[in-house]
Protein backbone atom coordinates (compact mmCIF):
# COMPACT_ATOMS: atom_id res chain seq x y z
CA UNK A 1 0.00 0.00 0.00
CA UNK A 2 2.88 2.37 0.70
CA UNK A 3 4.15 1.87 -2.84
CA UNK A 4 0.83 2.80 -4.42
CA UNK A 5 0.60 5.82 -2.12
CA UNK A 6 4.08 6.93 -3.37
CA UNK A 7 2.99 6.48 -6.97
CA UNK A 8 -0.13 8.51 -6.25
CA UNK A 9 1.92 11.35 -4.72
CA UNK A 10 4.42 11.21 -7.60
CA UNK A 11 1.62 11.31 -10.14
CA UNK A 12 -0.03 14.20 -8.29
CA UNK A 13 3.28 16.09 -8.20
CA UNK A 14 3.79 15.57 -11.95
CA UNK A 15 0.23 16.61 -12.71
CA UNK A 16 0.54 19.77 -10.58
CA UNK A 17 3.93 20.63 -12.08
CA UNK A 18 2.67 20.21 -15.65
CA UNK A 19 -0.34 22.44 -14.89
CA UNK A 20 1.95 25.12 -13.50
CA UNK A 21 4.28 24.90 -16.48
CA UNK A 22 1.57 24.95 -19.17
CA UNK A 23 -0.49 27.78 -17.72
CA UNK A 24 1.96 30.57 -18.61
CA UNK A 25 2.53 29.13 -22.09
CA UNK A 26 -1.00 29.93 -23.33
CA UNK A 27 -0.58 33.75 -23.26
CA UNK A 28 2.87 33.39 -24.82
CA UNK A 29 1.35 31.37 -27.66
CA UNK A 30 -1.25 34.10 -28.21
CA UNK A 31 1.45 36.78 -28.21
CA UNK A 32 3.35 34.80 -30.85
CA UNK A 33 0.31 34.70 -33.14
CA UNK A 34 1.59 35.68 -36.58
CA UNK A 35 0.47 39.08 -37.79
CA UNK A 36 -1.33 39.15 -41.13
CA UNK A 37 -1.27 41.80 -43.84
CA UNK A 38 -4.30 44.05 -44.11
CA UNK A 39 -5.24 44.95 -47.67
CA UNK A 40 -7.55 47.86 -48.46
CA UNK A 41 -9.50 47.87 -51.72
CA UNK A 42 -10.08 51.55 -52.56
CA UNK A 43 -12.77 52.34 -55.14
CA UNK A 44 -14.60 55.42 -56.36
CA UNK A 45 -11.57 57.65 -56.97
CA UNK A 46 -12.69 60.35 -59.40
CA UNK A 47 -9.27 60.87 -60.98
CA UNK A 48 -5.67 59.70 -60.86
CA UNK A 49 -4.26 62.85 -59.28
CA UNK A 50 -2.39 63.04 -55.99
CA UNK A 51 -2.28 60.57 -53.14
CA UNK A 52 -4.47 58.18 -51.21
CA UNK A 53 -3.73 58.65 -47.50
CA UNK A 54 -4.94 56.02 -45.04
CA UNK A 55 -4.91 56.19 -41.24
CA UNK A 56 -5.64 53.08 -39.15
CA UNK A 57 -6.71 53.57 -35.53
CA UNK A 58 -7.00 51.04 -32.70
CA UNK A 59 -9.14 53.34 -30.53
CA UNK A 60 -11.13 56.54 -30.51
CA UNK A 61 -8.15 58.75 -29.67
CA UNK A 62 -7.40 60.91 -32.71
CA UNK A 63 -10.00 59.27 -34.93
CA UNK A 64 -10.66 60.19 -37.72
CA UNK A 65 -8.40 63.14 -38.50
CA UNK A 66 -5.25 62.99 -36.33
CA UNK A 67 -3.03 60.56 -38.22
CA UNK A 68 -0.26 61.05 -35.65
CA UNK A 69 -2.42 59.02 -33.22
CA UNK A 70 -2.96 56.19 -35.73
CA UNK A 71 -1.23 52.82 -35.36
CA UNK A 72 -0.47 52.93 -39.08
CA UNK A 73 -0.69 55.72 -41.62
CA UNK A 74 0.55 55.82 -45.15
CA UNK A 75 0.11 57.73 -48.39
CA UNK A 76 0.24 56.10 -51.81
CA UNK A 77 0.24 57.50 -55.35
CA UNK A 78 -3.05 57.11 -57.17
CA UNK A 79 -2.59 54.79 -60.14
CA UNK A 80 -6.19 53.96 -61.07
CA UNK A 81 -9.80 54.62 -60.06
CA UNK A 82 -9.75 51.36 -58.11
CA UNK A 83 -6.65 50.10 -56.40
CA UNK A 84 -5.45 47.79 -53.65
CA UNK A 85 -3.14 49.01 -50.93
CA UNK A 86 -1.37 46.83 -48.36
CA UNK A 87 -0.87 48.23 -44.88
CA UNK A 88 1.51 45.44 -43.90
CA UNK A 89 1.41 43.16 -40.88
CA UNK A 90 -1.23 43.75 -38.25
CA UNK A 91 -2.24 41.88 -35.10
CA UNK A 92 -5.82 40.75 -34.51
CA UNK A 93 -7.97 43.41 -32.91
CA UNK A 94 -10.59 46.12 -33.37
CA UNK A 95 -9.67 48.95 -35.75
CA UNK A 96 -11.21 51.83 -37.70
CA UNK A 97 -9.83 53.44 -40.82
CA UNK A 98 -10.11 56.86 -42.41
CA UNK A 99 -9.04 57.62 -45.96
CA UNK A 100 -8.33 60.82 -47.89
CA UNK A 101 -7.98 61.25 -51.64
CA UNK A 102 -5.45 64.06 -51.40
CA UNK A 103 -5.77 65.32 -54.97
CA UNK A 104 -3.23 68.16 -54.62
CA UNK A 105 -0.78 66.01 -52.57
CA UNK A 106 -0.47 68.54 -49.74
CA UNK A 107 -1.17 65.78 -47.16
CA UNK A 108 -4.10 67.59 -45.56
CA UNK A 109 -7.85 67.63 -46.06
CA UNK A 110 -8.79 70.75 -48.02
CA UNK A 111 -12.22 72.09 -47.12
CA UNK A 112 -14.54 74.71 -48.48
CA UNK A 113 -17.36 76.71 -47.03
CA UNK A 114 -18.58 75.41 -43.64
CA UNK A 115 -15.75 72.84 -43.51
CA UNK A 116 -17.16 70.66 -46.29
CA UNK A 117 -14.35 68.55 -47.79
CA UNK A 118 -13.21 69.46 -51.31
CA UNK A 119 -11.34 66.18 -51.60
CA UNK A 120 -12.60 62.63 -51.34
CA UNK A 121 -12.93 60.85 -48.00
CA UNK A 122 -13.79 57.32 -46.97
CA UNK A 123 -14.10 55.17 -43.87
CA UNK A 124 -14.07 51.52 -42.98
CA UNK A 125 -17.55 49.95 -43.15
CA UNK A 126 -18.52 52.71 -45.67
CA UNK A 127 -21.03 54.59 -43.48
CA UNK A 128 -23.11 57.54 -44.65
CA UNK A 129 -21.23 60.72 -43.91
CA UNK A 130 -23.50 63.38 -42.45
CA UNK A 131 -21.38 64.51 -39.52
CA UNK A 132 -18.06 63.69 -37.86
CA UNK A 133 -18.04 59.92 -37.49
CA UNK A 134 -17.13 58.09 -34.29
CA UNK A 135 -14.72 55.16 -33.93
CA UNK A 136 -17.52 52.74 -32.99
CA UNK A 137 -19.49 53.50 -36.18
CA UNK A 138 -16.64 52.56 -38.47
CA UNK A 139 -14.69 49.97 -36.47
CA UNK A 140 -14.17 46.41 -37.63
CA UNK A 141 -12.63 43.26 -36.18
CA UNK A 142 -9.44 42.26 -37.92
CA UNK A 143 -8.77 38.53 -37.84
CA UNK A 144 -6.14 36.56 -39.76
CA UNK A 145 -8.82 34.93 -41.94
CA UNK A 146 -10.36 38.27 -43.03
CA UNK A 147 -7.49 40.33 -44.39
CA UNK A 148 -9.19 42.59 -46.94
CA UNK A 149 -11.62 45.47 -46.45
CA UNK A 150 -13.23 47.69 -49.08
CA UNK A 151 -13.57 51.47 -48.83
CA UNK A 152 -15.50 53.61 -51.31
CA UNK A 153 -14.31 57.21 -51.60
CA UNK A 154 -17.04 59.86 -51.39
CA UNK A 155 -16.96 63.43 -52.70
CA UNK A 156 -19.22 66.31 -51.64
Instruction: Look at the structure and give the mean pLDDT.
Output: 83
| Residue share in β-strands | 25-35%
CATH topology annotation of the largest domain: Immunoglobulin-like
Choose one word for the global shape.
globular
Q: Under the CATH scheme, which class of the largest domain?
A: Mainly Beta
- Count of β-strands: 8
Domain unit count: 2
* Tally of helical runs: 2
Q: Share of helix among residues?
A: 10-25%
CATH architecture of the largest domain, by name, is: Sandwich
Uncertain regions: pLDDT < 50 for 5+ in a row? 8-30
Topology order in helix (H) and strand (E) letters? HEEEEEEHEE
Task: Describe the sheet with the most strands.
Answer: 5 strands, antiparallel
Q: How would you describe this protein?
A:
This protein has 156 residues and is an alpha+beta fold. It folds into 2 domains: 1-32; 36-152, Immunoglobulin-like. The protein is built from 2 helices and 8 strands. The strands form 2 sheets. Strands 2, 3, 5, 6 and 7 form a 5-stranded antiparallel beta sheet that branches. A 3-stranded mixed beta sheet has the order 4-1-8, with no helix packed on it. The chain is globular. The model is unreliable at 8-30 (pLDDT under 50).
Amino acid sequence: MALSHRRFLLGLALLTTSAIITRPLAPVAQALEPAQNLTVEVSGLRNQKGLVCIALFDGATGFPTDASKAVKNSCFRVVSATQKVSLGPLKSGRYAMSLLHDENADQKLNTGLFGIPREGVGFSRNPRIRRKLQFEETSFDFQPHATTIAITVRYF
